[in-house]
Amino acid sequence: MAWLYLFIAGLFEVGWAIGLKYTQGFTRLMPTVFTLASMVISVGLLGLALKNLPVGTAYAIWTGIGTTGTAILGMVLLGEPAGALRLACIGLIVAGIVGLKLVSA
Predict the structure, then answer these.
(1) Average pLDDT over residues 40-68
(2) Where would you find the membrane-spanning parts of this chain (predicted)?
(3) Backbone angles phi, psi at 104, to 5 degrees
């Protein structure tokens, strides 16, 4: 269950990271509410996951999911560049996430 909490926490981290862009400096109400709720849920689920997972592994995976998802959504939603080198670097992050999961099973 801890791994599921961690995965969902990572998805909510993507939500709040992308949400920050839409708050326009916390001047828009609904994006701000969504972003703050996503922050609370993400950190709360991370806390639940940390009951059973090593902090270093869990934090690295949490930020890795957030980084990867945010970078991909930045390309898809916000028109950020999607060059081969950038995609390769994202692939390295994913490889690190998978590697940490495999050695922590």
Answers:
(1) 96
(2) 33-50, 57-78, 84-103
(3) -110, 5
Structural domains counted in the chain: 1
Q: What is the dihedral sign for C-alpha 15, 77, 21, 71?
A: positive
Picking from 31, 68, 54, 66, the residue whose alpha carbon sits closest to that of residue 100 is 54
Domain range for 13: 2-103
Contact present, 97 and 64 (Cβ < 8 Å): yes
What DSSP assignment string belongs to 37-90? HHHHHHHHHHHHHTTTS-HHHHHHHHHHHHHHHHHHHHHHHH-----HHHHHHH
pTM over the 0.90 mark: no
